[in-house]
Specification:
Elements: H1 9-31, E1 42-43, H2 48-60, H3 67-80, E2 99-100, E3 105-107, E4 110-113, E5 116-117, H4 121-132, H5 138-145, H6 150-156, H7 158-164, H8 169-174, E6 178-179
Parallel strand pairs: 1-6
Antiparallel strand pairs: 2-5, 3-4
């Protein structure tokens, strides 16, 4: 008996991401994989208060606050260049009272989805952790938990980063000479309705 499965665009992208991630992991299993690939890049412009946010996000997904994981977050932050309040990677996760920083989806003139300005540091951390725990981003969360290295996560998880909206920009940043992530915004720059 044949069954027909209908997937919406989001479900289809998620399925493709899982297949690509699975095939990538098979390749690593068959050909072998270095545990952690060191990223030789200089870090500047990082603040201790931002580092605490990154470390709390890593802790929230059960990942170590290793040098490589921090480099991945610095590169991701730099690639996103996020300006939304308490939202280092431009997540769109809905939280009570969080206002839109921008609008990515409209219907009849009303904003239905977009990057959020969060009311507090903790709310931004929680939103980012909850988003990273979604099935679409398993590759990223697993790479961080397994501490496989910043470049390895950026290259292995391109499809998940594409779904997030960052695409190959993290890998591009990591292939540069230095990391200089902008400070995480602590004030609302703009709000969209």
């Amino acid at each position: 008996m044949k069954r027909k499965v209908i997937l919406n665009e989001f479900e289809f992208k998620s399925l493709i991401n899982k297949i690509v991630d699975y095939l990538t992991s098979l390749k690593d299993d068959i050909l072998g994989s270095d545990d952690t690939e060191e990223t030789d890049i200089e870090v500047s412009n990082s603040t201790s208060s931002d580092d605490q946010i990154y470390k709390k996000i890593l802790s929230g997904i059960g990942a170590p606050a290793s040098e490589e994981n921090m480099k991945f977050f610095y590169a991701w932050r730099q690639a996103e260049s996020a300006k939304a309040k308490f939202n280092p990677f431009n997540t769109t996760k809905k939280k009570e009272g969080a206002k839109f920083y921008n609008c990515l989806k409209r219907k009849e003139g009303k904003c239905l989805g977009g990057v959020r300005n969060y009311k507090s540091e903790q709310e931004g951390i929680d939103a980012t952790v909850e988003t990273l725990k979604l099935g679409y981003y398993t590759c990223i969360a697993d790479g961080l938990r397994d501490n496989i290295g910043a470049k390895k996560i950026a290259n292995k998880c391109k499809s998940a980063l594409q779904t997030w909206g960052t695409g190959g920009l993290v890998a591009t940043v990591l292939n540069g000479k230095s990391l200089s992530p902008p400070a995480i915004s602590r004030s609302e720059v703009k709000t969209t309705t």
